[in-house]
Amino acid sequence: MNTKVFLTEDEMPRQWYNLAADLPSPMQPPLGPDGNPISPDMLAPVFPMNLIEQEVSQERWIDIPEGVQELLRLWRPSPLYRALRLEKALGTPARIYYKNEGVSPAGSHKPNTAVAQAWYNKQFGIKRITTETGAGQWGSALAFACSLLGLECKVFMVRISFDQKPYRKLMMQTWNANCVPSPSPETNAGRDILKKMPDTPGSLGIAISEAIEAAVTDQSGQTRYSLGSVLNHVLLHQTIIGQEAKKQLAKAGEKKVDAVIACAGGGSNFAGIAFPFISDKINGADIAFYACEPTSCPTLTRGPFAYDFGDVASTTPLLPMHTLGHTFVPPPIHAGGLRYHGMAPLVSQTVVEGLVTPRAFDQLECYEAAVQWARTEGFIPAPETSHAIACVIDEAKKAKEAGQEKVILFNWSGHGLMDLNGYGAYFSGKLTNYALPDKDLKESLAPLDKLPKAKSIKTGKW
Ligand SMILES: *Cc1c(COP(=O)(O)O)cnc(C)c1O
Known about the structure:
CATH architecture of the largest domain: 3-Layer(aba) Sandwich
Strand order of the largest sheet: 1-4-5-15-10-11-14
CATH topology of the largest domain: Rossmann fold
CATH class of the largest domain: Alpha Beta
Bound molecules: pyridoxal-5'-phosphate
Distance between the termini: 35 Å
Radius of gyration: 21 Å
Strand content: 15-25%
Oligomer: single chain
Largest sheet: 7 strands, mixed
């Protein structure tokens, strides 16, 4: 029995899969401040036109340019592992497979889109890319990608993480990015906040506002902004994961997969592994999909499907998505990548349609799962990834009770070697569970009343 399945570089997928082409019910468009659908050219100061074209594309397959394939080959195809030792520890008849996305230089799935975005920006004549980062995973992925292509990279990092998480910052510096704590004195948005709250720890919302401002105010016109999740083109770039997994499962002799599982922050690693299989489900396959999130930031399980802004300052277009409200302030849980208030519109629509089942897990259950994983499978997972592992363990136990030989596939989205402080807090008993109180949810949803309403459109087939 093989522990892992490789693909050769020649077998790496040559196209990305666009689920928008196959959705059973139509997506609703992003809206501008006047409540009317935005046109692609309105996004031109923020993103390069070649990526805007991907954002609105309805083509099922989009070619991966040779230049991007060459960058991806640095670590792709990623291995598909069979979690034999965990299966044994659980005594489950289920066969558990996972894509190890922790093998990329930055240690997660994020470089899959970072290298693609950097490449398209360079093609378009862009010299400098700005972005925000919370815990630093996205900032380091983009810094790595820009260093390969000789682009300048400017990262606005949430101040509290900048002070508390020196290693991601040092990775960015090593890859030659310019990383500053946000709020910074470099933008109007940053200066405004600093004047009012000089000691603020910062927030992702403030950092997004700063990064967009820094891009659109560059008089040379050679700076654009980049986002690491949520948007259609970002999810598109991640679909290479699920396509590789399909080929690898076939090589492992599997004819069918019963459950596909991933954690969901903005939705990109979930989409990456799941979308190519959701296409099979739309065409009649019987597969369960679980998108896993924290109970403290329960966007898909408790947030309504509504039009909302992507940032606190209400500068982005309104997106139709599951949301906790753009003013939502997540508690300081250790899975920094799962603290976003919204969710990718494409992932949200699969939940509305009933193709995907969202599930929420408590922080302690997730760390328990992560530690069991590390003590059986060896690799130490990112705190985000542990939400998928908690779900996998639960499904494997159910298969045991039912005596069913299920095939479970999940996305091991990244390693936790830069997140050991969270493990330390868990071991010393400092972590607690924290379910979002109804009262807080109601408060953070209140501003949605004033915004246009999204319709929950579904065929009723699933
Ligand atoms: C950023 C991150 C996530 C969450 O982001 P998605 O866009 O939902 O994938 C999950 N896992 C890891 C390791 C991350 O770095």
